[in-house]
Amino acid sequence: MVVLNKIYTKTGDQGETALGNGARIAKHALRVTAYGTVDETNATVGLARLHAADAMDARLAAIQNDLFDLGADLCRPDMDKDAEAEFPPLRMADSQVARLEAEIDAMNAALEPLRSFILPGGSALAAHLHLCRTVSRRAERLCVELAAAEPVNPAAVKFLNRLSDWFFVAARVANNGGKDDVLWVPGANR
Questions:
Q1: How far apart are CA 55 and CA 3, in angstroms?
Q2: Dihedral (C-alpha) 151, 159, 144, 17: value to the nearest 10 degrees?
Q3: Using an 8 Å Cβ cutoff, are 148 and 186 in contact?
Q4: Whose C-alpha in 54, 61, 114, 117 is 20 to 30 A from the C-alpha of 18?
Q5: Mean pLDDT over all residues of the chain?
Q6: Helix crossing, 154-174 with 124-149: angle to 10°?
Q7: Shortest CA distance to 68 belongs to which of 45, 85, 84, 102?
Q8: Tell me: the pLDDT tens digits for 157-186?
Q9: Domains parsed from the chain with CATH numbers
Q10: What's the rounded Cα separation, in Å, for the pair 142 and 155?
Q11: Rounded distance, CA 129 to CA 45, Å?
């Protein structure tokens, strides 16, 4: 259980923050940037939910919870085995990736195949979902960069990769099942 009695602690006033394992790290460190961008993704999902109804809102709520799991995973780098045995870290699981894949497949089954790239937009929900997609792609790139330098749970990277695909397909669903997608016309304004 998390208890937040005091919101400001002044411990970050010198440009450092604490990771989930208690280690202090610069706020501009790649790990902090990665999980900060996951948090930014979560905020964009909150905006999308303002335009979502029922089933879509429920799926987006589940994604927001998963994004908090992902932030918890990324803010807790590997510790020694004794510490992890006593205080096991929350890690992303392949089952979370599989759920996204199943939802993508179910949504995509009802859509006509694309014959053109689409422009972000259409309905308000679709536009917000495209914003979610682009921010989650940035989070993915940062996690991949972090994984090249430090250990990162592979399921975390997979989740972000599927998540941006989920947002893309969900945006098509939000655009009247793809009928209101705004198609790219190459060279239209030459």
A1: 31
A2: -60
A3: no
A4: 61
A5: 93
A6: 170
A7: 45
A8: 999 999 999 999 999 999 999 999 999 999
A9: 23-179 (1.20.1200.10)
A10: 15
A11: 7
- What is d(CA 93, CA 91) in angstroms, rounded to the nearest whole number? 6
3-class SS string, the chain = CCCCCCCCCCCCCCCEEECCCCCEEECCCHHHHHHHHHHHHHHHHHHHHCCCCHHHHHHHHHHHHHHHHHHHHHCCCCCCHHHHHHCCCCCCCHHHHHHHHHHHHHHHHCCCCCCCCEECCCCHHHHHHHHHHHHHHHHHHHHHHHHHHCCCCHHHHHHHHHHHHHHHHHHHHHCCCCCCCEECCCCCCC
pLDDT digits (tens, 9 = 90+) for 1-44: 567 777 888 878 888 888 888 889 999 999 999 999 999 999 99
Six-digit token string for 70: 């992902």
